[in-house]
Design brief:
Elements (H helix, E strand, L loop, with lengths): L1 H28 L4 H19 L1 H16 L1 H10 L6 H18 L8 H18 L1 H6 L10 H9 L1 E2 L2 E2 L10 H28 L9 H21 L4 H24 L6 H12 L37 H6 L18
Antiparallel strand pairs: 1-2
Helix pairs in contact: 1-2, 1-6, 2-6, 2-11, 3-6, 4-5, 9-10, 9-11
């Protein structure tokens, strides 16, 4: 099974190996050598892979926004048939759900498909970095231009005194242990920040107070622990890849949340406020066949409306006042003021 999986990924792993070698040649021409050249080559390879995946990421964002927008209608359908288990009710619920998808042009699989298409790229990248030591020792075949000679060259270099194939578990020297701990901590912290940014800013208000959200909050704090426990078995090259991926994901997610926020989220309200503050048209993300009740955005820095305090008046003045409660009607010229 493993050989079959590696055979499928072979075109990607070979392509990514060539990209890594290309970056190394560039850094060498710029006068950067040794372990830093290979470390920056891993960073460059990660960036190239993420750039290639941007179209898939954009499709995933659009699909996710569509699915979030129809959630209120989905909840209405689920509430309508709650507790009904007879075949007629289940069929009617399925039919109404499919009609909602068709009317709004959404597809529940469209938000998952881009993620599945991204996976081979990441597995191939992991394969290249994780098998460097095996290639250098001759127990794994060459991956494109990375043969035993190149892999041995990579393994002979180090960064801060730690070889790229070293792991925290198998290390006996202090530089490797210190560097792996620093990378694992940075990897875990960035992963926590990414998930927290997504949950706090880019989720609809309806999703913030439910049992699912509570589960996600628990996962938010467990994920860094999981990364820390698994990271002690990762080679330094793989840790550099994961850290670079997290930094890229944070920046990409920050941009998306600011420019294409989820419908009904705090980020969307902030976007509308910025548009109103700059005098731009407030653009609301909608779907065909689905209306949205969006409150009008008001710039936060706009001062309070200047409302004049209504002065109290006597009964006689009240009688002279107009029906709208405005200024009192002045008395005739030959009538003295009271």
């Amino acid at each position: 099974m493993g050989d079959f999986f590696n055979a499928i990924l072979s075109p990607l792993t070979v392509g990514e190996a060539w990209v890594m070698i290309g970056w190394h040649r560039l850094w060498t021409l710029l006068g950067i050598g040794g372990g830093w050249a290979w470390a920056l080559s891993i960073v460059g390879l990660t960036v190239v892979v993420r750039i290639v995946l941007i179209p898939l990421f954009v499709k995933q964002i659009h699909a996710s926004r569509r699915m979030q927008l129809i959630q209120p209608e989905m909840q209405k359908i689920q509430a309508k048939y709650k507790g009904k288990t007879d075949p007629e009710s289940r069929q009617a619920m399925t039919q109404e759900t499919m009609d909602l998808y068709k009317r709004t042009g959404t597809n529940p699989l469209s938000s998952c498909l881009p993620i599945l298409l991204q996976s081979p790229f990441f597995f191939a990248l992991f394969t290249v970095l994780n098998h460097l030591k095996a290639i250098a020792e001759g127990t794994w075949g060459a991956i494109g231009p990375i043969d035993a000679t190149v892999a041995q060259e990579i393994e002979s270099t180090n960064i801060f005194g730690a070889p790229f194939s070293s792991t925290f578990v198998g290390a006996t020297d202090a530089p490797t242990k210190i560097l792996t701990v620093v990378l694992i901590v940075l990897m875990s912290v960035t992963q926590f920040i990414i998930q927290r940014q997504l949950m706090r800013k880019n989720l609809p208000d309806s999703a913030l107070d439910n049992p699912y959200m509570k589960q996600q909050t628990i996962i938010l704090y467990l994920m860094p622990i999981f990364f820390a426990l698994s990271g002690i078995n990762f080679p330094i090259g793989v840790l550099i890849y994961w850290l670079t991926t997290n930094v890229w994901s944070f920046g990409q997610q920050f941009y998306v949340i600011r420019r294409m926020p989820a419908p009904g989220s705090a980020a969307e309200r902030a976007l509308h406020e910025r548009q109103a503050r700059k005098g731009k048209e407030v653009k609301v993300f909608t779907l065909p066949g689905l209306e949205r009740d969006v409150p009008e955005a008001t710039p936060q820095d706009a001062g309070p409306v200047n409302r004049q305090r209504q002065q109290p008046m006597s009964k006689k003045r009240a009688k002279r006042a107009g029906p709208s409660g405005g200024a009192a009607t002045p008395p005739p010229a030959d009538t003295p003021n009271p």
